[in-house]
TrEMBL record:
The 3-beta-HSD enzymatic system plays a crucial role in the biosynthesis of all classes of hormonal steroids. HSD VII is active against four 7-alpha-hydroxylated sterols. Does not metabolize several different C(19/21) steroids as substrates. Involved in bile acid synthesis. Plays a key role in cell positioning and movement in lymphoid tissues by mediating degradation of 7-alpha,25-dihydroxycholesterol (7-alpha,25-OHC): 7-alpha,25-OHC acts as a ligand for the G protein-coupled receptor GPR183/EBI2, a chemotactic receptor for a number of lymphoid cells. This is 3 beta-hydroxysteroid dehydrogenase type 7. One of its GO terms (cellular component) is endoplasmic reticulum membrane. Pathway: Steroid biosynthesis; Lipid metabolism; steroid biosynthesis. The lineage of its organism: Eukaryota, Metazoa, Chordata, Craniata, Vertebrata. It comes from the Eukaryota. Residues 10-279 form the 3-beta hydroxysteroid dehydrogenase/isomerase domain.
Length: 380
């Protein structure tokens, strides 16, 4: 197939953690495309070099919350994978900004699909549109049909739930050219893998404490995690099959899953950090929950006091503690049944790829210098 004879895909948020893996996945495994438009507020110029004689990678700088930017990016395209989002549960940005990007931005994508005659939209949603809620209701090996007391108060999950609802309701609407728009929504659980910003923070934090991770969460609380490569693969397959079987996938939601083990958030992270000599201290939480909650409240107070002077957004706050302390695991085969999804990467490979990347953080030495670590000190 010569360049230019295939389809044009738009990946919003294509320079992000998931987005950049998705662009590479499309380049490697999707033979029906001739152009990938990477639409993002913050461009990663290295993606431009991924163009080859078959597929052009075109970087488009734009703001998803500006309709004109989105219309221009979607003009003449065939399909949109909408991953752009402000992922913030730490109070880094105002709630209004999260709504503007995640909800208004999604409205703009839908409006642009309608006006530009783009027939297919795959939306990157999140487990958070379901939970966990702050009541501590566990979601244990649940699926897309599991009843759950959904309760959102925080801006981020609220925005993802609103955006997903808009996307699903838009399935089947008439668009320019008399065609119909087909949409589906993918709900990843906690994504891990090469480039995960939060893992970088945990690594840096661990270096500051002599490669010791002090257990704060009960090991009995399980959190579903999914490898970024498998999330990208599921998006590719959903995009492909939405075009072939729109009545099957249209208006549907799918949890993203693979064979990553069910573990507590901390124990799962140690699967990678232990390869760098990190050790987790304590077989059960070292501090009582009420003390952790008080620390979380103190962080909220400090964030409020420092607001306007500096952005104080520590990992621990009442919301992240509640989420981390509530089991949320999925067990489903809906994506396999509807569009033949099977994880592309087995757990062992996903683990080794992630370990290789975490180890590269050490080789870069930047983290070590930042925390003044002199050697590979390992706590006893
Ligand atoms: N990371 C996870 O654990 C996780 C889990 C479930 C779902 N998700 C979802 O996956 C998607 C990608 O998340 P991620 O972890 O890769 O986050 P990320 O922050 O790495 O990527 C988001 C991208 O969106 C871009 N963006 C933000 N605001 C924009 C705007 N106004 N206009 C255009 N682009 C904008 C950012 O520049 C970034 O490149 C999001 O929709 C998120 O809700 C993430
Ligand atoms: C300070 C400790 C208690 C520390 O271990 C807390 C971990 C906590 C910051 C994370 C635990 C679960 C994470 C969330 C989960 O993986 C799913 C998410 C959905 C996604 O759409 C956005 C990110 C997140 C909310 C993710 C954020 C970090 C955690 C709360």
């Amino acid at each position: 197939m010569t360049a230019g004879s295939g389809q044009v895909y738009v990946v919003t948020g294509g320079c992000g953690f998931l987005g950049s893996h998705l662009v590479r996945m499309l380049l490697e495994h999707e033979k029906n495309i001739s152009e990938i438009r990477v639409f993002d507020l913050h461009l990663d110029e290295s993606l431009r070099t991924l163009s080859n004689d078959r597929v052009r990678v075109r970087l488009i700088s734009g703001d998803i919350s500006r309709l004109a930017d989105v219309q221009e990016a979607l003009h003449g395209s065939h399909l949109v994978i909408h991953t752009a989002s402000l992922v913030d549960v730490w109070g880094r940005v105002p709630a209004s900004k999260i709504t503007e990007v995640n909800v208004t931005g999604t409205e703009n994508v839908l409006q642009a699909c309608k006006e530009e005659g783009v027939q297919y939209l795959v939306y990157t949603s999140s487990m958070e549109v379901v939970g966990p809620n702050i009541h501590g209701d566990h979601f244990y090996r649940g699926n897309e049909d599991t009843e759950y007391r959904i309760y959102h108060k925080e801006p981020y999950p609220l925005s993802k739930a609103k955006a997903e609802k808009l996307v699903l309701e838009a399935n089947g609407i008439k668009i320019k050219g008399g065609k119909m728009l087909y949409t589906c929504s993918l709900r990843p659980t906690g994504i891990y893998g090469e480039g995960h910003e939060l893992m970088k923070q945990f690594h840096r934090q661990g270096l500051r404490t002599g490669r010791c991770v002090f257990r704060a969460l009960s090991p009995a609380i399980e959190h579903g995690r999914v490898y970024v490569g498998n999330v990208a693969w599921m998006h590719l397959l959903a995009a492909r099959q939405l075009q072939i079987h729109p009545s099957t996938l249209g208006g549907q939601v799918y949890f993203c899953y693979d064979s990553s083990p069910y573990k507590s958030y901390e124990d799962f992270n140690m699967e990678f950090l232990s390869a760098c000599g990190f050790k987790i201290i304590g077989s059960r939480p070292l501090v009582p929950y009420f003390l952790l909650y008080l620390l979380a409240l103190l962080n909220v107070l400090l964030q409020w006091v420092l607001h306007g002077f500096i952005t104080y957004a520590p990992i621990l706050n009442p919301y992240t503690l509640a989420v981390a302390s509530t089991t949320f695991t999925v067990q489903t085969d809906k994506a396999e049944k509807h569009f033949g999804y099977q994880p592309l990467y087995a757990w062992e490979e996903a683990k080794m790829r992630t370990i290789t990347w975490v180890k590269s953080l050490e080789v870069s030495g930047k983290d070590l210098k930042d925390v003044g670590e002199k050697s590979n000190y390992c706590c006893s």
